[in-house]
Amino acid sequence: MSVRRCLLVPLFVLAALLPFTGVSAAHDSELEVVASGLDNPRGLDFSHWGALYVAEAGRGGAGPCLTGPDGDPVCAGASGAVTRISHGKQRRVLRRLPSLAAPDGSGAIGPSDISFGLFNAYLTVGLGQNPAVREEDGEEDLGPLGPKFGQLYRISPFGGVRPVADISAYEEAANPDGNTEEGGVDSNPNSVLARPARRYVVDAGANDLLRVGPTGRISTVAVFPDVEATGAQAVPTAVVRGPDGALYVSQLTGSPFTVGAANIYRVEPGPEPDLDPEVYASGFTNVTDLAFGRDGSLYVVEFATNGLMSGDPTGALKRVPPGGGSSSDEVASAGLVNPYGIAMSRKGDIYVSNHGAEPDVGEVVRVDAD
């Protein structure tokens, strides 16, 4: 795997680095399970009516299969989903969404994030490959499911789902980070933030933050730099709006996934691309999601707090005080196994998706931050 590119570091690659337990880890008293039995749960968001929704990347399927970046097969299937959690009950409200995973269903790429706008919700479906695999004329392709990957979808209040922006096609045409090395064109739409008249999407494979207008027109907002110490790709993961109106973007970092090398960037969403985003907070490891608390503190989810190469799936939830910097407090770690997404309720309760690289045992937990 190239240190320069990392090709998204698809989660089916991460799954090969981390042990698959197949059972839910024991929790201490600070985690309350509110949903279970999920398949590779990822991003979370609350609807305007107070229900919590989680994107499930699925468990792949019977194929077509591709050769993954680690040389092992990864297979496609319509197993992605969106689950609603409300009044102590959970229900899959959307099913049969595209998914790509290892044969055991681990480390899937599929539905990755959900964000509620004024009327509609928006959902990203990842890819983690060169967009060419979506075409049915190559040596390896994803068959009829191919065009459904790498998209931003709109979900209507009545449950209708339709694509509104082809994020991976934009990477293929524009390649905003200008990487011309072998494997330089790569796309994995990972996070979405719905705002009035626009949506912001982080493409982890392309190392950029994009704006999607009302008609589906895509433009580049920011491109993220390589990791200075190792030359690894940035691999941005999530975008949230801060109390100051700016956008904040988290970083996984590419291989070798150096401990402490991940930053949180602040981006002013102006009309011109920001080729040098400002570092707001630093010293993190393999960050997958962010959320601001009511006091202006920033909560940060680390997928593997000891680094992806350690083989230790223990993650962490950390808190950065208002103003950012290089200091943070650990809110929770025990019981967090490859946590991925985070959402804050109107009351300030914190919810995290847990076991984010495994089928069947995925959870959403409420974290007691007191």
Strand-helix topology:
Layout (H helix, E strand, L loop, with lengths): L10 H7 L13 E8 L2 E6 L5 E5 L8 E3 L5 E14 L2 E13 L9 E6 L4 E5 L25 E5 L5 E6 H8 L14 E7 L2 E6 L4 E5 L5 E6 L12 E6 L5 E5 L10 E6 L10 E7 L2 E6 L5 E5 L13 E5 L8 E4 L9 E3 L5 E5 L7 E6 L3
Antiparallel strand pairs: 1-25, 2-3, 3-5, 4-5, 5-6, 7-8, 8-9, 9-10, 11-12, 12-13, 13-14, 15-16, 16-17, 17-18, 19-20, 20-21, 21-22, 23-24, 24-25
Notable traits:
single chain; 370 residues; mainly beta; Neuraminidase; 5-stranded antiparallel sheet; 4-stranded antiparallel sheet; 4% helix; globular; disordered N terminus
Give your account of this protein's structure.
This protein is mainly β. It has a single domain, classed as Neuraminidase, CATH 2.120.10.30. The chain contains two helices and 25 strands. The strands form six sheets. Strands 2, 3, 4, 5 and 6 form a five-stranded antiparallel sheet that branches. Strands 1-25-24-23 form a four-stranded antiparallel sheet, with no helix packed on it. Strand 24 and strand 25 form a beta hairpin. The longest helix has 8 residues. The N terminus is likely disordered.
